[in-house]
Amino acid sequence: MTIAGTATSTGAGVSTSGIERLAISNVNTSGTATVDATLMAGLKTVQVTGGLQATSVTGLDSVVDVSLVASSKNVSVASASAAVTVGTADTSTVTLNAAARSDNVDLT
Q1: How far from 89 is each of 44, 63, 64, 82, CA to CA, in Å?
Q2: Residue 91 backbone phi and psi in degrees, to 5
Q3: Which of 5, 29, 43, 72 could, after both became Cys, cross-link 103 (CB 3.0–4.6 A)?
């Protein structure tokens, strides 16, 4: 999914089935790009490649792995509810590949 715009952009209303990896390329020139994953059941990994601005993924139905590739902007990944993140067996793997080379990056 490529998100482009000149202001804060929202990728909402996208429904997926059987997709495990959401790959995002954020080419917004200003403002955070937000992807509403409420209709994307079963995602296992969120990958953000590059990015001119911050990227936010909301509405996830599970704890996911996060991969940042050549990204020097903040990334936020959030569940649909607090109940998704409850449990001592829940884990998330963070993979960094050439990330934060030109700026500090916050991953939340």
Answers
A1: 15, 11, 13, 15
A2: -135, 160
A3: 72
